[in-house]
Specification:
- The chain is an alpha/beta fold.
- The chain folds into two domains: about 160 residues, 3-Layer(aba) Sandwich (Rossmann fold), CATH 3.40.50.300; about 70 residues, no CATH class.
- The protein contains eleven helices and ten strands.
- Strands 6-7-8-3-9-10 form a six-stranded mixed beta sheet, sandwiched between helices. A four-stranded antiparallel beta sheet has the order 2-1-4-5, with helices on one face.
- Helix 3 packs parallel to helix 6 and helix 6 runs parallel beside helix 7.
- The site of adenosine-5'-triphosphate has 12 residues, from helix 1.
Length: about 240
């Protein structure tokens, strides 16, 4: 289980994340919600070890190290970044192979790549296609498949539906819900609160670097402040479902 206590992240003198506490339990899917600039990306990048931070981040009691992404990846934390982080000039297959570079069980890892094609047939059909030619939804699928190949114990998804058409966005939310059914622990960053709250167990609301509310998905879905205070009014939430 992920346990974050007193997380602080600075950009120069600016404290962008101001003492966050959050947990993700085994097999749990938890959303980190908030408006633009609330500090969501900064928080998850720090948890994944992609930036320096202060505070305590542990997984199953083991301390994760600030600014040590590869170590944290080996510890089972895999981040699909905002914008997907696909290597556009490389093929689908080359992108997937990036997902197994730090695995030691090479033969099994190659088999897992083949299994990924079975799981996501469109990636199999397009394995030698240049990744930037994929649609937004296919690229998100590729980014998630690459992350799964690292065999994460905790998958962090940073705005996976960003920039996707509503139907494709629905597909991505269904994909995430399916991963939860398989028992994967997930920390999901989203601005589309209503859609996120349909598939998560719990959520935290972030505003200017602080958690200002947390609770079960049902509690937060019925909380008017979620739409009004943090997400730009009912219209912003309403556009997502
Ligand atoms: P969005 O949904 O727009 O991605 P977010 O909630 O993920 O927003 P962050 O990107 O974490 O928010 O940004 C938190 C704050 O830190 C914002 O005020 C942002 O302007 C600032 N910030 C982010 N990256 C940097 C940086 N590299 N240098 C300085 N300030 C930054």
């Amino acid at each position: 289980m992920l346990k974050v206590r007193g997380l602080e992240v600075f950009y120069g003198p600016i404290r962008a994340v101001r003492g966050i506490d959050l947990d993700v339990g085994k097999g749990e899917i938890v959303a980190l919600l908030g408006a633009n600039g609330a500090g969501k990306t900064t928080t998850v990048r720090a948890i994944a070890g992609l930036s320096s931070c202060r505070g305590e981040v542990t997984y199953d009691g083991r301390a994760l190290v600030s600014n040590a992404a590869e170590r944290n990846l080996r510890a089972g934390i895999s981040l699909v970044p905002e914008g997907r982080g696909i290597l556009g000039s490389m093929t689908v297959e080359e992108n997937l192979l990036m997902g197994i570079y730090c695995r030691r069980d090479h033969a099994q890892a190659l088999k897992d790549v083949e299994d990924m094609y079975a799981r996501f047939p469109i990636l199999g059909e397009r394995r030698i296609a240049t990744a930037r030619l994929l649609s937004g939804g296919e690229q998100q699928m590729l980014a998630i498949a690459r992350a799964l190949l690292t065999r994460p114990r905790l998958l962090i998804l940073d705005e996976p539906s960003l920039g996707l058409a509503p139907k494709t966005s629905d597909f991505v939310f269904d994909l995430i819900a399916g991963l939860k059914k398989e028992g994967m622990a997930i920390l999901l960053v989203e601005q589309k609160a209503r859609q996120a709250l349909k598939i998560v167990d719990r959520a935290y609301l972030l505003e200017t670097g602080r958690i200002i509310k947390s609770g079960s998905a049902a509690e937060l879905a019925g909380d008017p402040s979620v739409s009004e205070a943090f997400l730009g009014g009912k219209a912003a939430v309403g556009t997502t479902s």
